[in-house]
Design brief:
The protein is an alpha+beta fold. The chain has one domain. It has a five-stranded antiparallel beta sheet with strand order 4-3-2-1-5, with helices on one face. Strand 3 and strand 4 form a beta hairpin.
């Protein structure tokens, strides 16, 4: 997998965007004590579409992208 970005939304939810071969994979991250739990949300062909998918899924605005 190529570069992975962490995306925080208002309210504290965390998402992850991974890019591989021109496709962006979006996952919801639930932070736990020992291991994080990741759930696949969807995949898109652009970073902007991936961010829109996160906004739609969370119902909130994006706070930061690392």
């Amino acid at each position: 997998m190529g570069r992975t970005r962490s995306v925080a939304v208002q309210g504290g939810n965390l998402y992850e965007i991974g890019e591989y071969d021109g496709t962006f994979y979006v996952r919801r991250v639930k932070v736990k004590l020992l291991l994080n739990d990741k759930s696949d949300i969807g995949k898109t062909r652009s970073l902007e579409d991936a961010l829109s998918l996160i906004r739609s899924h969370s119902g909130r605005e994006i706070k930061s992208i690392d």
